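INFO  loader      accepted 1 record
INFO  loader      residues=427
INFO  predictor   begin
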Amino acid sequence: MTITIKKMFWKFLSLNLFIFHVLLFATEGNDAITPQLACSPSDEHFAVWCRFDNTNYIVQSSRFENFSWTTPVDISSLTKSARDCDICCPATGKAIAIWYATDANSMCIRVSHFSEGAWSAPIDLSTSGRPACSPQICGDIYGNAFAIWRSSNGTNEIIQCSHFNGSSWSTPIDLSSSGENAYSPKICCDNLGNARAVWSRFDGTYYIIQESHFDGTSWSTPLDISSNNANTYDTTICCGPSDHSFLVWREDNSTHFTICVSNFEDPSWSAPIQISESGKNSYTPHVCCNDADNAIVVWSGSDGTNELIHASHFDGMTWSSPTILSTSGEIASDPKVCENSSGNAFTIWARTDGSSLIVQVSYFDGSVWSSPTDLSDLACNSRLPQICCDDLGHASTVWYINNGMYQVIQTSSYNGTSWSIPVSLSN
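INFO  predictor   done
INFO  writer      dumping tokens
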């Protein structure tokens, strides 16, 4: 009898704890997905994501000020569904969000500008009549910005770009060559008016990375960076403030997937080198760099049993041997990295403990990485973590969780000493 009563008590307690956990988040409303972050050097942090309103996905935004996040605001049109949002902070007090908007008749690229405490009405960037998707955006400290996306000309998928000069956007131009399909555009810019765009072109056999450079006036003819006899994936690029750029990708060498890097230092790109361990598969690289032209690459790599997070640091001369950041015996994936001007960095990823996906973070003090710290709720699956940091030693993270009813955007912030308890952003 006593055992039966105890079983009933624990069943009652477990049920009510579950109900409490669900109700805690149920006020958040509909699904919210694909969060992105951007930080200015002066402690301005912006987040964007796409939230379903029962009809369309709407881009929402919140900014971090006075040690808390503002109430989310809708910045895309309620009459078109918005996906693949991105954001940059091109100057103090300013931000630009980009996404692709679609309805039954069109698919176009749109942007909205944040200035003087408010978001502008969205405007179309892409060429009318050409379906467009996969937007990315970057900006410099002077208020200039570059947007890139993939567009169809009716025959091929073409990479297009537009430049914001601080007051208006340029007419889109084609960057990739006609006659071939191009995918997965990425872009970065420095503080000297230069920008670099990369994408994967398909030559009929292989996906090859191409790059085009904006010198302040015009874009260069596309240049092949990766090998012309191997497939490439997961391309990522960053630009230092003085036109020193780093390009990283995953390459299929027909035996394993490896992480390769090439860096640009005037006047040319270096020959690609492999920085991941030979004989083991590696995936999803991400790169960042700082004012001193140092860089860090992180990726998920196999140890033969599990996927672990690896990091390699470029000190201006050479790449370090990979350092394992995540815990052995667990699967870790989706790493992202950011670095400030002092050379301090943060890497974030999702690990599984066998039952849930949990967001973890590690801090780099310029010489060593810290032990991983759990950030997200251990009872919920947390996915697609993003991170940014500023020059004051602060950082912000976002991810989305499934709380059993909805997918909700959550965040945790670092104040220079410790990480805050996660809070929900989406509503």
